[in-house]
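I hope you will forgive my troubling you with a question about protein structure. I should value your view on which stretches of the chain appear to form regular backbone elements. Here, with my thanks, is the record as I have it:
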Amino acid sequence: MSFTKTLMATVLAASFAVPAFADGMVVQDAYFRTSGAMAKSGAAFMDLINQSDQDDRLIAASSDLAMRVELHTHKETGDGIMQMVEVEEGFPIAANGMHSLARGGDHVMFMGLTRAVEDGDVITVTLTFEQSGDLVVEIPVDLTRQDGMSQSMNGNSG
């Protein structure tokens, strides 16, 4: 990628890095990635911050980017192997708390991608919370981001 294209992608991604809000719920530092240009699946990672005095739960996600969008986590099978599994009950976010969706842990999984994505693209995702309702977020595609780069509002790593 040329310097100009890289710079444009960075500026575009930064412009969408602004937190999204819905009735006390804040989504911050979201990004989407795939394993490569021909990937049939991908994942989104973000910090979910509950600024209300009521517990909430992320119960679903949807996007026209994929045929199926599910909430997933990694669990160890008994033999030391990590397996990705759907979390049908969703992810709880305590009142005035935070839940990080991060690589190697909880995440939003996109299966059967309907189009290819490139670094710097932006995807639209609807997150559904049990109490806060639907929140539409614009998530930048970042194919170069490394583990441990997520930062929450209070500076903790995600």
